[in-house]
Amino acid sequence: MKAVGFTHYLPVEDANAFLDLEIDTPKPEGRDILVAVKAVAVNPVDTKVRSPKDKIESTPRIIGYDASGLVEAVGPDATLFKPGDEVYYAGDITRSGTNAEFHLVDERIAGYKPASLSHAEAAALPLTTITAYEAFFDRLGIDRDGPDAGQSILIIGAGGGVGSIGIQLAKQAGLTVIATASRPQTSKWVRDLGADYVVNHRKDIVAQVRELGIQHVDHIAIFNDMRHWDTAVELIRPQGGIVSIDDTDLPMSMGGMKMKAASLHWEFMFARSMHQTADMIEQHKLLSYVAGRIDAGEIRTTMSEVLSPINAANMREAHRLIETGQAKGKIVIESF
Length: 336
Hints:
With about 325 residues, the chain is an alpha/beta fold. The chain has two domains: about 1-125 and about 275-335, Alpha-Beta Complex (Quinone Oxidoreductase, Chain A, domain 1); about 130-265, NAD(P)-binding Rossmann-like Domain (Rossmann fold). About 30% of the residues lie in helices and about 25% in strands. The strands form three sheets. Strands 3, 5, 6, 7, 8, 15 and 16 form a seven-stranded mixed sheet that branches. Strand 9, helix 4 (about 160-170) and strand 10 form a beta-alpha-beta unit. The termini are close together. It is found in: Cytoplasm.
């Protein structure tokens, strides 16, 4: 089967940063399903894993953490899917990745693809959808079905992949969304996705939020980096919650959090599969739930650009676009 991988961790400008490969097709065992991959998406985590380092792989490494495709075969213990089913999922960071013509994934972390979307449109969603859903509804404890309607959430870094789906999930839950974006294109993007207010995260966020007449917000999601920590502490309401997806070595003063009895949560969507938690199937459930909302016309894809086919050259280009820090939404590559 065809695949895209690498042996050396090289700058994306290097022609050998990715290689076109021919490898054996794997066979499903246990609860795995074998998926014929039709489209993949690229995330910042892909670029972090591939980033230059003094390391050489003895056999090519295949990464990739978003896919949409057709179930080709199922393992003997699989019960959720059958051959021919359309699925979308984000995979498992501890296993071989989705940048391959056929890919194995545990059925408990895959969902039914939204029927109304193409494979390219669906591939844009899984990793970011799981991240935003878990951040809001599992970590911060927001009720997705409306009882917390009217509460406010500040999404810092709202124009990226996680923020783009996060805005929509927050609006579905009835929240007032304050989104940050720093460019005219991303400001328009987040407004079109449903943000109630937009502020510039390259300027004084606290001043901008308070100019809106909002002293404190109920929830804060840091979806870019932790340099905004002090801003988040200042704006969170007493007994509110902050969630972050960024690992950091920056200093994080906790005095303000203590005085407000506020909480900090970390979100890492690979935690369930990495640690084989007893509730892994929750990712299957949430992906299928969101697929239903998409098919009902309540949520839309966050795909912003499509490249074709899935090969080394287009993979390098997608990684280059992510590394510029200027991308909005999700970049997808379709068809082998």
